[in-house]
Specification:
Blueprint: E1 2-11, E2 14-24, E3 29-33, H1 40-47, E4 55-60, E5 63-66, H2 72-81, E6 82-85, H3 97-107, H4 113-126, H5 142-155, E7 160-164, H6 172-187, E8 192-195, H7 199-205, E9 208-213, E10 216-221, H8 223-228, H9 233-243
Parallel strand pairs: 3-8, 3-9, 6-7, 7-8
Antiparallel strand pairs: 1-2, 1-4, 4-5, 9-10
Helix pairs in contact: 3-4, 3-5, 4-5, 5-6
């Protein structure tokens, strides 16, 4: 389970997240939508402490952290409970696909090398890239690189995987292969929080869609309700604009 209570993030005088309260159950797939610059990616980054939240408490699994009192050990423990998939892949350019996936197991989880590499090979098989074990990122397509990024998150065995617009940097031809892998994870009931503009993915996969604007959760509910019967005028206006070019 994930629980955020009064989570806020300020950049100077700018309030990016303003008292977010949110509970996500184990195995739930939550898709976060909203206009650019409204705090969606910042929310994910705060959960993983890639951004230091300003105030509030966070619970992931059996770990609860007051963000104002979080020690280095608390932050490391929270990161062990979460895994992050970035927009721009964020792979190590000097490491092979196999090494990129095994890196966290070796460095953070302190697995023996043989065990870490065996697990990395199993994941490469799962994501359909067993033949790319010895390939470096520069020799792989954007879609393949992002699948390795997702494989790295899978290796963590984390309570939740956080996806920050995972298809936004991809050429259109590679989007479906990445979404396909995410759908596979969703079918296995991996807890996921996904920031995306892929509305068809949200419709097909999400248990819940959350609309964020101005650092607040404006509206949330099942995809059928949010897309076809939104209540708040801000949600209606946003969906009217985005569904004109990205229908569900």
């Amino acid at each position: 389970m994930i629980k955020l209570a009064s989570l806020s993030k300020h950049f100077g005088k700018t309030v990016v997240l303003d008292g977010i309260d949110l509970t996500i159950e184990k195995g739930e797939i939550v898709v976060i939508i909203g206009p650019s610059g409204t705090g969606k990616s910042t929310l994910l980054r705060c959960i993983n402490f890639l951004e230091q939240p300003t105030s509030g408490t966070m619970t992931v699994g059996d770990l609860t952290v007051d963000v104002n009192r979080a020690s280095r050990a608390d932050i490391l423990a929270m990161r062990r409970q979460t895994a992050f998939v970035f927009q721009n892949y964020a792979l190590f350019a000097n490491k092979t696909a196999l090494q990129n996936i095994a890196e966290r197991l070796l460095v953070v989880d302190k697995w023996p090398k043989e065990k870490a590499y065996q697990r990395a090979r199993e994941i490469l098989e799962q994501i359909g890239l067993a033949d790319k074990a010895d390939a470096y990122p520069a020799s792989m397509s954007g879609g393949q690189q992002q699948r390795v990024g997702i494989g790295r998150a899978m290796a963590a065995g984390a309570e939740v995987i956080l996806f920050d617009e995972p298809t936004s940097s991809l050429d259109p031809e590679w989007v479906e292969e990445v979404l396909g892998l995410m759908k596979q994870l969703a079918s296995e009931r991996q807890t996921m929080m996904v920031v995306t503009h892929e509305m068809s993915f949200a419709r097909d996969v999400a248990d819940r869609v959350i609309f964020i604007d101005g650092g607040h959760i404006v509206e949330q509910g099942p995809p059928s309700e949010i897309f076809h019967n939104p209540k708040d005028p801000r949600t209606k206006d946003f969906l009217k604009k985005i569904l004109a070019t990205n229908p569900v």
